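R.M. (postdoc): so does anyone remember the format we settled on? I'll just put the structure tokens first.
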């Protein structure tokens, strides 16, 4: 989608520190990390909200979560990790292209 920073990253128009890519998803380092390891996992298809899930996207999201789990040890997350999906302005969603924050690499606070 035009003017979407994640679509531009996926298209290679904006550089990113990629850590994984396949035909459906891209995982790259967050430029403003809030944990020792802070990655962003984005589906290559542009949509913003979980409320836009349909059957195809539900399957994609399931495969994406499974892929994150299988990649975790190679991403330095063997000891655990946290996934966060911010939805909407009050949650702090700043890019309106669905993305999963992957946090870990150190003990994470929960407060
Ligand atoms: Zn996008």
């Amino acid at each position: 989608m035009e003017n979407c920073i994640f679509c531009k990253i996926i298209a290679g128009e904006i550089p990113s520190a990629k850590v994984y890519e396949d035909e459906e998803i891209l995982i790259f380092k967050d430029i403003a990390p809030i944990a020792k390891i802070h990655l962003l996992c984005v589906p290559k298809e542009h949509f913003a909200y979980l409320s836009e899930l349909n059957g195809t996207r539900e399957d994609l999201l399931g495969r994406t979560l499974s892929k994150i789990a299988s990649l975790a040890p190679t991403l330095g997350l063997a000891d655990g990790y946290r996934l966060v999906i911010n939805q909407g302005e009050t949650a702090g969603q700043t890019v309106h292209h669905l993305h999963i924050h992957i946090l870990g690499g150190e003990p994470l606070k929960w407060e």
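R.M.: ...and that's the designed sequence above, right after the tokens. Also worth knowing: Helices lie at 5-10, 55-71. The first strand starts at residue 18 and ends at 21.
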